[in-house]
Please model this.
Amino acid sequence: MTKETNFWRRAWSKMSWLLPTLVLSGLPICGQADDVEYAIDDANQLGTIDFETGVFTQLGTGQIVSGGSIGDMARPIGGLVYLTPVNGTLAVVNPTTIQTSTIGNMPANIMAIAFTASGALLGVGYGGTTLYNFNPTTAAIQSTVTLSGTGFTGAAGNFDLKSDINGNTYLLTGSTVIWSVNVNSGAVTNVWQSNGAYYLYAIGDEAGRLYGFTTDGHIVQINLQGGGQTLVSTETSVSPIVAVCNGGVTASQPTLNIQATNQNSVVLTWLAISNQFQLQHNNNLATTNWVTLTNLVKVTNSLNSIITLRTNAADFFRLMQP
Model:
């Protein structure tokens, strides 16, 4: 059996493109959110986490950052897994090989990141009152806004940042307080406070519902309307979960992206964790004459890429799994 995924057409004579995906700041943001949530526990192990059952399935056998630790993790909808190691860098991780690729340097105290529904990468530093907007391809600061509100003194203690599919952004501070954040003005509003039953390491979103990951290894659903929380499950990880993210693409069904590099060539990219797929092309969809490209595949920031020359004829591309 074979599996193919999303072919592309290029017609160079008319320079027409069929582009059903969005390219944001050079990185492809494509596909739809899957139902996989990734998590990192306090022992620096990467895995998947089921919010409802608490089952943590470890990926790989070693620490995600050897001898170090992770500040936070985030994924744009249909995108890659981003990390903020505490060494002050922004990186992406391959969940299959547990290998990380550094994108660039960030302020050393950035320990909470989140992607908004529109694809903006936000970050907050330890003890800080500044909300950063980063370029996800370079880690460069694009803009900042000062966080302020009644009772807010900064991102102290165990803190986390999350945005949900409805466009809401939340900031956890001191393990006990969650603030709603206006990402444009920086205004924050206290929307939840622990009653003392649970203290949180992290928060996560699933289908618009906000969850808390407690310091004693439980998962609770946060009630933003009436206050309080509901115990959902007990984590099966050896150590408590300290960071979670969701919303990316399914590795088994990668999306193929095409972008012009200059007047003479284009680059095609897809997730490197989907390296079991072969890139093929065919200049006539009425035939079955698909040919596997033998161009050198380059891997950068967990993306496979192939550069091919433009021609005057129509050409079609697809990913095929033998």
Notes: The two ends are 7 Å apart (CA to CA). The first strand starts at residue 3 and ends at 11. Residues 3-24+251-321 form one domain.
